[in-house]
Specification:
Length: 339
C-alpha cells in the first residue's frame, strides 16, 4: 500500500553546490528532507557516484554546458546523477514500486542524489536492483545508459563490425567495450598502460596503449570510433574510419557541433553526438531495464575504482577531474551500502 509520510521539518545531510567553481565549493550541510508527491517515491540513498559530467556541471565548464545547468549558477543545489538505494516512502498514486524495494537508476531533472534522500517520479529512470548485485555494483549504470544509445542508435552497431573505444577504461568506456561485444563487434580499446589488462578482461579483442602507440597510424580502419572522454577529434580519426564510418563523440564541445552539421551534408563519414541525458525518461527507463537484464545474465558488469564517504565529495571530484579513473568512483552515503 502507498506510504506517504510528511517529512517537513526533518533534516538530512546533502552536498550543496551553490555556485560554479573548484571541488572545494562543495559543502556538506543539513537541509530539509523531501516529501514525495502523489506519483513520487522517496529513496534512501545508499551509494552514488562522481562522473566526469558531474565535474562539468559543478564547475560550469566548458561554458556550453551552462545551457543545460544554468548560465550564472547551478540550477540545482544538490547535484549528482547515479544512485542506488531503498524506497522509504511512496506517494498515494505510485503503482510501480513499494516501500522496501531496492532500486537503482539515474536522475535527469530536479535535485540529484548527493544526499541521504532523493524524491523521484516513479516514471523516472528507475528500476529494481538486480538481486545478485550489491548497491555498489549496481550504481555504475549511467556509463552504460550513455554508451548504449551512442552505439545502438547513433552508430547502428552491427555484428562483425570493427569498433574502437577511446577511453576504454572509464565509466563510459568500460560499458561501451562490453556492449560492443554483446552486439557482436570486433572491439579495440584505447587506454593507458595501467589499464590494458582491465580492458582486455572486459572483452576487448585488441588494446592500444596510447602512451606508446597511436591507433591512427596502425593502418586499421573502423566502422565506429567512439570517443568516450572527449580527447580526440573527428579530423584526427577520419583516415581511420571506413568509407561509411561513424565518429561518435560523448563530450559536448564547440568543435563537434559544426563537424556534425557539416558531415550530415557532405561526405560518407559522419561525426555524431547524442544528448543522452536529454532523452525522454520513458526511453531511458526502457534502456535501464534492458541493461538490468544484461547484468542479471552476466553480460555487463560494473567496474569500481575508488570509494569515498559523502563528506569526502570534494576529494572524489578532484580525483575524477584528473582524468585517470578506472570505471566508477563510488560515494558511500550510509554504512549499509555494501549490503
Amino acid at each position: 500500500m502507498p506510504n506517504k509520510e510528511d517529512h517537513s521539518g526533518e533534516l538530512m545531510k546533502a552536498i550543496i553546490c551553490s555556485k560554479y567553481g573548484p571541488p572545494d565549493i562543495l559543502q556538506l550541510k543539513e537541509v530539509e528532507k523531501p516529501t514525495p508527491k502523489n506519483k513520487e517515491v522517496l529513496i534512501k540513498v545508499h551509494v552514488t557516484t562522481v562522473t566526469a559530467v558531474d565535474c562539468t556541471f559543478r564547475k560550469g565548464s566548458p561554458f556550453i554546458s551552462r545551457l543545460f545547468t544554468g548560465l550564472t549558477r547551478p540550477k540545482h543545489l544538490i547535484q549528482g546523477t547515479e544512485f542506488a538505494g531503498e524506497i522509504e516512502a511512496t506517494g498515494k498514486d505510485v503503482k510501480l514500486f513499494e516501500v522496501g524495494d531496492q532500486v537503482f537508476g539515474t536522475t535527469s531533472s530536479g535535485s540529484g542524489p548527493y544526499a541521504e534522500y532523493v524524491c523521484l517520479s516513479e516514471q523516472e529512470t528507475l528500476a529494481k536492483k538486480p538481486a545478485t548485485m550489491t548497491y555498489e555494483k549496481a550504481v555504475g549504470c549511467d556509463g552504460a545508459l550513455t554508451a548504449l544509445p551512442f552505439l545502438r542508435d547513433k552508430g547502428n552497431i552491427q555484428s562483425g563490425q570493427k569498433v574502437l573505444i577511446y577511453g576504454a577504461s572509464g565509466s563510459n568506456g568500460t560499458a561501451a567495450v562490453q556492449l560492443a561485444k554483446y552486439f557482436g563487434a570486433d572491439v579495440t580499446g584505447v587506454c593507458s598502460t595501467a589499464n590494458v589488462e582491465l580492458v582486455k578482461s572486459l572483452g576487448a579483442d585488441k588494446v592500444f596503449d596510447y602512451t606508446k602507440d597511436d591507433f591512427t597510424k596502425a593502418g586499421q580502419t573502423y566502422d565506429i570510433i567512439f570517443d568516450t572522454v572527449g580527447k580526440i577529434s573527428f579530423s584526427r580519426c577520419k583516415r581511420s574510419l571506413k568509407k561509411r564510418g561513424i565518429f561518435l563523440e560523448a563530450v559536448l564541445t564547440w568543435a563537434i557541433i559544426p563537424q556534425m552539421m557539416w558531415t550530415s551534408k557532405i561526405g560518407s563519414k559522419k561525426a555524431m553526438i547524442a544528448f543522452t541525458g536529454l532523452r525522454p525518461t520513458s526511453e531511458r527507463a526502457k534502456d535501464l531495464n534492458f541493461l538490468k537484464e544484461l547484468i542479471e545474465e552476466g553480460k555487463l558488469k560494473s567496474v569500481i575504482d575508488r570509494r569515498y564517504p559523502l563528506e569526502k565529495m570534494a576529494e572524489a571530484h578532484r580525483y575524477v577531474e584528473r582524468g585517470h579513473k578506472k570505471g566508477n568512483v563510488v560515494i558511500t552515503v550510509d554504512r549499509i551500502s555494501k549490503t
